[in-house]
Backbone:
């Protein structure tokens, strides 16, 4: 197996910085800009006309034939509330001098009155290593998507900014995600207005701004739900009298008793017209317990260690080992116990590497380009299914350089039944 390094700050691709960026959704003061916001909402619309089917069949293979239906997971209310705090819209321009910052604002294609508002030095604060800017909400809200992208690309390198890890929206799932969140037309238009492009994604980094402009407490709560929503799938295995039961049993038997899946598969195939089996029924007990759930720090103080590596290396474990939450020892374990393979199969570890071959994520391969994973160790990320393609696209958004690429690893001595 090739030697892979781990970036020291790879905590998942998105959502919110829990200590700074998530707002309390009650008791907020409305700003005068909200009164005139309706005029801005429909000036620019990032609506995408292409859509991805929500329900579909996968490719057939030795795993059988899987059927997918996309759902949107959102953290429980107690998880959101326990990590909420106040904040304000502010930008940190690292390495900028006042003259350089003025020149930068003038270089962005924005109206003169917006430039004047952003270059008002009473809203600036000189700091070690750069300049903080507290923009007027009207000016920040009025930016067109391309201008916002230009400005936020300058903010993205600095962890002080929400733009360092923005919330990604898949363009072809945008309508579906907003509909699942039950946003009002105005709230939906506001979110679309504040999105900015980074191909192939639409990004969002303006929680404080948006929530200040929403006058209704319930809509602010729903807005937060949309920001932390995660797309995943209900997955079933379709079997009938024509299914290759011996092949299915062999594919899904890893880590179980020899007859651990046979009885269920044979009984389901014997039903007239066939049956649909929840894929989770074929997976190890720990996975069945974790799937579609969120960690809860009030119950388990060690949730930050239950990251992607802990999840991947404990996939077959009856008693999960917390040592796999430590990144460097876990990578050493992978080097010692696993070999790289070209074609993945059930139970293989999918290790994502950046352009410098640094490890940035791990998941477990199931079948048909589907993985089981958890994106980071925080409470806002559930255990869930993802496709390899969506996972690669998401981790190519991280601050690590270049596009992510997968390496498939297989344990030399597979877990016994």
Residues:
């Amino acid at each position: 197996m090739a030697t892979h390094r781990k970036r020291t700050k790879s905590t998942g691709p998105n959502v919110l910085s829990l200590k700074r960026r998530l707002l309390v959704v009650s008791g907020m003061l409305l700003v005068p800009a909200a009164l005139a916001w309706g005029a801005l909402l429909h000036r620019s619309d990032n609506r995408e006309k292409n859509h991805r089917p929500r329900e579909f069949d996968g490719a057939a293979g030795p795993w059988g034939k899987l059927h997918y239906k996309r759902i949107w997971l959102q953290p429980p209310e107690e998880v959101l509330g326990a990590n909420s705090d106040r904040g304000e819209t502010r930008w940190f321009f690292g390495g900028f001098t006042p003259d350089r910052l003025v020149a930068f604002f003038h270089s962005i294609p924005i109206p003169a009155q917006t430039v004047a508002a952003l270059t008002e030095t009473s809203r600036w604060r000189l700091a070690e290593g750069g300049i903080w800017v507290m923009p007027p909400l009207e000016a920040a809200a009025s930016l067109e998507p391309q201008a916002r992208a230009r400005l936020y690309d300058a903010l993205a390198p600095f962890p002080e900014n929400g733009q360092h890890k923005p919330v990604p929206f898949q363009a072809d799932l945008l309508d579906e995600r907003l509909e699942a969140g039950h946003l009002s037309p105005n709230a939906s238009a506001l979110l679309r207005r504040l999105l900015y492009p980074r191909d192939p994604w639409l990004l969002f980094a303006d929680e404080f701004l948006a929530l200040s402009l929403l006058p209704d407490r319930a809509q602010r709560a729903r807005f937060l739900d949309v920001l932390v929503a995660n797309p995943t799938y209900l997955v079933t295995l379709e079997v009938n009298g024509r299914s290759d039961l011996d092949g299915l049993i062999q594919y899904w038997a890893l880590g179980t008793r020899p007859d651990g899946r046979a009885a269920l598969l044979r009984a389901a195939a014997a039903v007239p017209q066939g049956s649909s089996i929840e894929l989770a029924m074929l997976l190890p007990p720990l996975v069945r317990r974790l799937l579609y759930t969120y960690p809860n720090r009030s119950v388990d103080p060690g949730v930050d260690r239950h990251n992607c590596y802990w999840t991947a290396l404990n996939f077959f474990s009856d008693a999960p080992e917390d040592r796999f939450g430590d990144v460097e020892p876990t990578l050493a374990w992978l080097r010692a116990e696993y070999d790289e393979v070209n074609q993945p199969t059930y139970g293989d570890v999918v290790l994502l590497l950046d352009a410098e071959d640094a490890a940035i994520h791990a998941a477990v391969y199931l079948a048909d380009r589907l993985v089981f994973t958890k994106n980071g160790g925080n409470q806002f990320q559930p255990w869930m299914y993802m496709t390899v393609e969506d996972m690669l696209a998401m981790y190519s958004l991280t601050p690590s350089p270049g596009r992510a690429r997968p390496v498939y690893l297989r344990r030399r001595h597979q877990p016994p039944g």
